[in-house]
Amino acid sequence: MKTLTTAHLTGIAGLTAEDVHTLLDTAQEFKEVLNRPIRKVPTLRDLTVANLFFENSTRTRLSFELAEKRLSADVVNFSASGSSVSKGETLVDTVNNILAMKVDMVVMRHPHPGASKFLAERIPNTPVINAGDGTHEHPTQALLDAFSLRERLGELAGKKIAIVGDIRHSRVAISNILCLQLLGAHVRVCGPRTLVPRHIRSLGVEVSHDLDETLRWADAVNMLRIQLERQGGEGRVPYFPSLREYARAFGLDKERLDRLDRVPWILHPGPINRGVEVTSEVADGPHAIILDQVENGVAVRMAALYLLAPVRP
Length: 313
Hints:
Elements: H1 17-34, E1 48-53, H2 59-70, E2 74-79, H3 91-99, E3 105-110, H4 115-122, E4 128-133, H5 139-153, E5 160-164, H6 171-182, E6 186-190, E7 206-208, H7 211-217, E8 220-223, H8 243-250, H9 254-258, E9 265-267, H10 280-283, H11 290-308
Parallel strand pairs: 1-2, 1-3, 3-4, 5-6, 5-8, 6-7, 8-9
Helix pairs in contact: 1-5, 1-11, 2-11, 5-6, 5-11
């Protein structure tokens, strides 16, 4: 049985290239399971997984829960709203109380960067999987994006992948950059100058502010969501003049794609702001693999749970 070099999945940082290949290869095996008439296996039977979501989520939470149930695990869902966290209980106290109920693994989403690593250091014998921590990392999203790209492009070594949009506020961007580089891909980020951090070049990526030129360069483009909730909320868009202006310069529509000799594969981590990052015509078109990402997310999360699950004595 293949194993990972880490006991937790708190980020792509800390994984090796072999780890990533192991996760993707295992996900391929689980995708075959998901396409069978009976989509459930007894792999994690008698193990209990706690999903701790201190931040709202729909796709990620459902994807993890489905992955856990496909592996026959018992599932406990925890939401911060209405819990003792709102009464002042600390993160560690909350988790230790849950672990006292004999929980075997923890999946956590948290608004604060580094929260999953903080937790993993304090409960070292219980595997922790990061389902997104603030603007830091979202490792399983990067893995499912890489898995979806590998299905279309084959091995990613030497392939040109662009990440477009709100790089500044995106945990998806950082995890994707690290994951794709481990797989040998060439990575470029593209977006308004205000949404591309100056330090991003230190990660070894190319930087562009010209979407049309980037589309001609790329084999695939990952169109990130504009995260208005991290830009001040209440409809404010302090990093660019307006959503209409953003869509004109950095949104994908059919007219823009029609000018290309070769159209790249189009990804989006969701939820989509239709008409901003991509139009409906593009999101639902033949070059978009957005629903593939959703489907593959379950297989990738099954792989992560399986590879990190504690071994019963």
